[in-house]
Amino acid sequence: MHLLRRRSFALLFAGTAVNAIGSWTALIALWGFATFRFDVGAGKVVLVILAWSIPAALAGPFAGVPIDRYGPKRVLMTADALGVVAALAMLLAHSYEDLIWCGILMGLAKAFSQPAAASLPPRVVDDADLVPANALLGAAGDSAIVFGPLVATGAIALWGFHAAFVIDALTYVVAIVAVSTLRLRPLAPTARESFRRELAEGYRLTARNPALLLTMALSTAVYLTWGSFAVVEPLYVRDVLGESTTVFALLQVAFGLGLVGAGIVVVRLGDRVATMRALAFTVLLSGAAAGLYVGTRSVIVAGIGVFLWGVDVAFFAAPARSLLQRHAPVEAHGRVLALHSTLHAWGDLVALPVTGLLAQAFGVQHAALAFAALAVAAGLAGYAASRRLEVAPDTGPVLATA
Questions:
Q1: Rounded to 5 degrees, what angle do the CA atoms 71, 169, 173 make?
Q2: Residue range 186-200, pLDDT digits in tens
Q3: Which region, left, alpha or beta, applies to residue 71 given φ > 0 means left and ψ of -120 to 50 means alpha?
């Protein structure tokens, strides 16, 4: 926790937490605004969510080049400024179509802000503190799972849907101020090439580096599982457990508690959990915990399973980012981490329709268990590959001496 005693990192931590809460507040308000103000059905609500998520899948592959060219700090502040515009534009939304366009703007801001934020820690902290820094920033963002819905509920109840979007805009401003105070370690100058060449080089770098490639593959299996459970979880609680939305909400709280609590443990363990073998084993356990969650008809067992799943996700997220940062040259962090974010977005988009088809054909539980088994299989294969993988990570960024 010594990192939080450093003023610059503490401000980044606070800005990350506040911004994440604002994003959750806006997302919940966006769902409610579409449903209650414009009285749309389930299909159009899905379109609103897709408007938020599709830009990350389409723009994500290109976001890394400007991050590497102009620096993660500048790109993150610009993306957050776009987030302010998108949030305030919600105040002028008078139709369902206006919501769609505002959702696209929000998603576009996230497509650039997420990889830019992930590129900051190696430029802010020493390599020895990289895993704890990623874990702390992850815990700051994950805390929004608990606090975001509460803030949204209170703001909407007191002042209406528009208040949630004002809060989101203000939290973006807080994040911009926090990031503006950071002093990043300068990089040694590199020759600039065309946009297309730099983009292609980012993909070639990932394809040639076994550690990067394995981390991306393991992450894809996890992201597919997450995307499938976004469809399955409410149906599983309703149709298999036979419980209400209250139980569904409590299960999400259990997941969040496991996630945030374990994130603090990762801070303490540091580099001991940031190895390829540990990451592969974590992916295996992720599938096992997810399977325990949806493979039962007992609410108690499901609660234990979803809590353990949250714990396991914490042991996956920060180490995965740290491995990508360490095995990629710092001047390519934007492109590598943008690719990682893009895989997350495509994991959601691919898993959503596939899960729906599997659920119709074989039932909700079997559809979820299929994706859980995919994570287990990926973890086993990744563990076997990691034992053969002998790649020394970079010792840190190549920094300018002046």
A1: 45
A2: 887 777 788 889 999
A3: left
Asked whether the beta carbons of 133 and 271 are under 8 A apart, the reply is no
pLDDT tens digits along 305-352? 999 999 999 999 999 999 999 999 999 999 999 999 999 889 888 887
381: amino acid identity, one letter: A
Tens digits of residue pLDDT in 35-51: 666 766 655 666 776 77
Classify domain 1-182 at the CATH class level.
mainly alpha
Architecture of domain 202-386 in CATH?
Up-down Bundle (1.20)
What are the structural domain ranges in the chain?
Answer: 1-182, 202-386
d(CA 337, CA 347): 15
The reported pTM is: 0.86
Half-sphere exposure of 280 (CA within 13 A, CB side): 21
Provide the β-strand partners of residue 187.
399
Tokens of 253: 């709280």
